[in-house]
Amino acid sequence: MRDVAIIGIGMTRFGELWDASLRDLAVEAAVECFKDAGTDRYDSITIGCMSSGLFTGQEHLASLISDYLGNKGNPATRVESACASGGMAVRTAFMEVASGMSDYVLALGVEKMTDVGIGAATYALATASDQDQEAFHGITFPGLYAMLARAHMDRFGTTREQLAQVAVKNHFNGSMNPHAQFPTKIDLETVMNSTMIADPLRLLDCSPITDGAAAVLITTAEEARKFKNKPVVTIRGVGSGTDTIALHHRKNMLELGAVQKAIHRALDMAGITIKDIDLAEVHDCFTIAELLVMEEMGIVKRGESGAAVMSGLTALDGDFPINPSGGLKSKGHPVGASGVAQIYEAVTQLRGDAGKRQIAKARWALTQNMGGSGGSSVCHALQSNN
Amino acid sequence: MVGIIGYGTQIPRYRIKVEEIAKVWGADAEAIRKGLNLNEKSVPAPDEDCATLAVNAARNALKMAAIDPGLIGAVYVGSESHPYAVKPTGTIVSEALGICPNVHTADLEFACKAGTEGMFIALQLVKAEAVKCALAIGSDTSQGAPGDALEYSAAAGAAAYVMGSENVIAELMATDCYMTDTPDFWRREHAHYPEHGGRFTGEPAYKKHVEGAVAAILERTQLKPNDFDYLVFHQPNGKFPVQVAKRLGFREDQYRHGLVTPTLGNTYSGSSPMGLAATLDQAKPGQSILMVSYGSGAGSDAFIFKTTERLPQVRSQRPEVRKQLDEHLFYLEYGSYAKFRRKILKPE
Question: Predicted ipTM?
C-alpha cells in the first residue's frame, strides 16, 4: 500500500441553511477544499451521505455531485453506513489512493436535513436502527441512547450532571468554531433543565438536525510533498468494525464492539497506542455516546468516564482533549457529513490552524465516527509530518 | 386627511392556558411559555365564528366613527377561517351592519395578513375618493392541529377599522409592502388543519418579510426606529415580534402596548390589527405608530399612522382591547375546548 496524505480540506458552515440545497452544500465544501489544496485535480469522488432519498427525494449522488463539480466524467461512488457514512467515504478514498487505483480522490460528506419536518427527519434517522425489531415498534434514536444512559447510570452510578458536563464542554469548544451551528456556551443548569426528550436525556444532551457538507482531498504522501503551502498530514491508520444493529442483541449493551474494533484497528495500523494521541474527535450524537466511546478508547476504566469528564480530562486543556471542534453536539450533525468534518478538525489541529481552540503541539489525532447505536464505526489515525 | 375614523375589536371570553394543552400532549409547558412567550389563548364559543366576531368588532368601530352605515361604500373581511369555502363572509357582515346594498365587498385570504390587506385597500379607495368611507376587518377563529406547536397559539378574535376623510382619529402617513413566494405555512383544499415548515417559519419567513417591510417604509419616509412613539408587529407568538423589534433597534416601551399575544394568542388576520387597536387605546394626540403585518406565503404590509386630537375624545365609545382581554374570562379544560373547537368527532 502507498502512504496516503490529506492536502486539502473544505467545509460549509453547519446549521439550518435555508438558502442552500444538497448540491449547493456539496459544491461549496468541495470548492473550499480545492482552494485550500491549491489544486482542483481529482481522479475520483467518494460521497458519504446517509439518506438524501428520505431527506430530499434525491438519490444517485454519484452523478449529481460529479455533474455539479464540473461534469468531468470521473468515477464517483456513494458510501452509506448511516451516521458513519462520512468516515466510510474517507476510508474508501484512502483505499483507492493506497491501492494505486487513483492518485487524487475527493472524499465528501453531505446531508441536507431541513427540507423535511421533524417527524420525517426522525423517521429518516430511525432507518439506521433495526427496522423490523426496533424502529417498527416505535423506538427512535433518542430512546435507544436514553436506554444506554439509563443502563450506565444504573450500573456505574453515572450522574445526570456528568452527562450534562459533556454538553457544557463541547459547547465551550464550539463557541470558538466559526463553522458551528450552536456556538453558544451553556452551563450545567441549562442542560439539566432543558426540555425532556427521552428520560434521562434532555434537549441539550442531543445533537441537532443540521445541513452541511465537508470535503477532504486525498493523495499519496509522495504527491503531497509537492504542495509546499501547507504542512503535510498523513492518514496512518484506518479501522472500521461492525456490531449487531439492534441494541437488544448485544451481549453487553454498554460495550460498543464496533467502536472498540475500529479504534484498535486504526491504532494498530498506525503502530501507536492511545497514549500517543494528542486529541480525538468522537461521535457525540448524544452526551452518553461520548462517555461510552471514552471507555472503548481505554483512556478510562469502564464506568469511570463520567467522573473523568467532570475532572477535566477531556477538556481543551486536559490530558486527553475530546471534540475540540465542539463535536456533533455544538458544531451540528449533518449525519453524512459528520465523519468528514471530524477529519477536517483533525487536520486543522495538526496543521496548527485551530486558533483559540488549538491544542498545543498536536502531532497525532484520532477520529471516531459511528453509525446508529454503534452498529458500525470507522476511525482514522492522522499524523502531522511537520 | 385620510385615515382611521373608528376602530373596534371583539375577543371571545373563553381562554385555555398553555399548561392545560401541554398536559394533554405530555409537552413541556414551561419551555413553551418561556420559549414562545405565550401564557394562554382565546377560544371561540360554539356560536362564535369569523362572521360573528367580525360583526361585533365592526359594531364597536361604528360606535366610535358615529356615521350612518350607509356611507360605507366598501367592506373587506380578511380571514383564513371564512365559514364558507364558496359564499362570502362580507355579505353576512354587510347585511348585519345595515350597509347593504350599495357596497363593494370582498373576502380576502392571505394567512395572517388578510386583515391589513383590507385596511390597505380601504385606505387607498378613500384616498382615491372612490368611496366616502370603507370598512376593513381582520377576523379569525384560527385552527391548529391537535398536538401541533400551533395549537398553543391559534386563537380567535377580530379587529375592525372604518376609514374615511372626515373626523379622522389616526392619519395615514405612508404604506409599503414586502412580498415573496415563500411557502412557510399552508392549508390545501379539503385539509382540516394547516401545515407549516417548523423552524422555517422563523428567519426566512416571518423575520425576513417583517424586516423587509420595515426597511422599505423607513427608506421611503427617511424615518428611523427612534422617530416612532409606538410599534406594532404581527404576533404569531410573543417571541418573534420582540426578537425582530430588538434587532431593528426599537425599544420595549414602543412595542409593549401593542403586544397582546402572550394572553390572547395569535388571532391570525386579527393579530396586528388587534395590536394596533391596543396601541390606539393608549396613544396621545400627535403620536406616530408603525404597524407591520405578516402573512405566510409570504408578505408584510407596513403602515405609518399619526394620531389626532379626536382620538381621546371618541375612543371610550366602545370597549377597550385590554378590557376584552382581561375581564369576565372563563377558563376551559381541554375537554370543553376540544368540544368547542369541534375536535371531537360524533355521529351527525
Answer: 0.79
